[in-house]
Design goal:
With 164 residues, this protein is of the alpha+beta class. The protein has helices at residues 2-25, 79-84, 139-142; strands at residues 33-35, 41-46, 54-59, 62-68, 75-78, 92-97, 100-114, 117-127, 134-137, 146-150, 153-157.
């Protein structure tokens, strides 16, 4: 009976701490916008424990995880993930990443959604050696928004004519 109780306690604690750690990696699982008194819509993202802005979203209707990266010229998709998303590689280009110079393939993403923000025909790069399962949400997406960082939050505001 004690062994069963101990096993149950360990399972409960594991589930609890797993959820806490998961929230620390991605505190923005369901980003949603709010409408301010001035009529502007905004999405506020929380910085994760590593200092990055990570958020759930979608590409062409498929759920993905974004890492917002103002230092990336384009949205960058790991090639393995690009296959799952059925993104077609185009022209080969040479690109500079944090890991050095690598080849990538230009593509166009039909639809990217982050919270209530939807953008169409977004230029992107399929990067064969990009590690991890996250998509770098670079400036080809972010340049269409107003954004500002204060403390541990990043505020994204789409133009008034964009959205649902």
């Amino acid at each position: 009976m004690y062994v069963l109780a101990a096993a149950l306690l360990i399972a409960l604690l594991t589930a609890l701490f797993s959820g806490i750690l998961d929230h620390q990696v991605n505190p923005n699982k369901k980003p949603e916008w709010v409408v301010n008194e001035d009529g502007k819509r905004r999405i506020t993202l929380q910085r994760n424990r590593e200092g990055h802005y990570v958020a759930n979203g979608s590409i062409n209707g498929e759920q993905v995880i974004f890492l917002l990266d103002t230092g990336a010229t384009m949205v960058a998709v790991p090639q393995e993930l690009a296959r799952r998303l059925a993104l077609t590689p185009g022209q080969e280009i040479s690109t500079v990443t944090a890991n050095g110079i690598t080849n990538a393939y230009v593509t166009n993403i039909n639809e990217i959604t982050l919270g209530g923000i939807i953008q169409y025909d977004v230029p992107a790069a399929l990067v064969p050696n990009l590690p991890g399962g996250q998509i770098l949400l670079g400036m080809s997406f972010l340049k269409r928004l107003d954004f500002s960082q204060r403390g541990d939050t990043l505020v994204l505001e789409p133009p008034l004519d964009q959205g649902r």
